[in-house]
Amino acid sequence: MAEAFACRVEDLLDLEDRRALPEGDLRLLINRPPTGEPPTPPITPSLIVAPPEPTGTDLVRLAADESATWAQWAEASNVGDIALEQLMAETRALASDYLTSDPVVLFVRTRALRDRVFALLEGHQYPRQSTDLYVAAGYLCGLLTWMSSDLGQLHDAETQGRTAWLCAELAGHNDLRAWVLSTRSKVAFWDGRLRDAINFARRGATYRTTGTVAVLLACQEADAWSELGAHDEASASLARAEDARAAMSGEDDIGGIFACQPARQENYAAAVQLRLGRPADALRSADSALALLTVQPVRAYGTEAQIHISQAAAHLATGEAEGALDALAPVLALPPDHRLAPVTRRLGELCSGISRPQTGGTAAIGLRQAIEEFCVDSAPRHLALSPGKGSS
Fold first, then answer.
1. What is the pLDDT of residue 392?
2. In a domain, 357, yes or no
3. Domain range for residue 126?
4. Do 96 and 242 belong together in one domain?
5. Number of structural domains, the chain?
6. DSSP string, 279-339
7. Nearest alpha-carbon partner for 157 in 189, 130, 135, 127
8. Domain check: are 108 and 230 in the same one?
9. Do 10 and 104 share a structural domain?
10. What is the three-class DSSP state of 6?
11. Which pLDDT score, from 0 to 100, does residue 54 have?
């Protein structure tokens, strides 16, 4: 082969070959004489003459050339300001679309955009551009956290949340830190880790932020306290949500799922008041939330469904099964792809209360059957039964 390529035998070996060969074989190949030629003595280190070190003006010129070469590398970037602006615009669109669209389709789109941002971060850009990329990556991982939780995959949601938090820390971005902690509080709540949910919400509230994240964090803390049966703490948290709304400065940078509109705040208030045994107050908050939804530019089907569930629960608490069935009609009409885990979980809780004596009757039995059928045909169940996931 060496003769065919007109080269030396050792030239056919790459670095991995040389590492793999025993030392004796390697020495034999290197010292092997070409065909028909006498052996050439091996080159010993003593015969290798290093080039002289530059001195004087040559040394100064070489140092300048080296700095210029590095500057050319440092000045280069794999992303421009327009591209960064586009990435953030696409992130905002995903966060907004998630309120009204199929969660699995949005998950695929969000994952693809996250991968684009990750790939850019593996390249080279200005430090300020790296920071912007970490912010985009953090919001996208936060969005995947929220989606994973809504699809019933709480372990995967927690993993996404940790990565989102790392991005927020690397970016040094307080609004992102607070929103990530809000998503992690949500995951902990639905995972039954109520103390963690409270701690995440409280930690998020320590950052100086703009927009509505402080409102949502206070609502989430109230939610967890009410689940623990802590009346005073839950009521105080709802009051802090009102104060945060009044003290709010600036707009939400991303919006969509990363925003807490007044209807969303009232939805939390209704759920908290139900757990605190105040069905009349819960019904007022639910009615207020539905009225506020009508003036919002985007109506989030998940939030609207939970408001109707609170209405139904308030009616059941006062023995009005017919009113509960009417309140749940819009929820039971949701297509399967929109039946997210928080909705099915809350309906399950509602269903468990229907067996109480004061909620008996034909209407209650029909309501229970409708809820059971609804929960069987849901987005989390479809995901669990999809190919590759198994049916257990």
1. 34
2. no
3. 81-260
4. yes
5. 2
6. HHHHHHHHHHHHHHHTTSSS--HHHHHHHHHHHHHHHHHTT-HHHHHHHHHHHHTS-GGG-
7. 189
8. yes
9. no
10. coil
11. 83
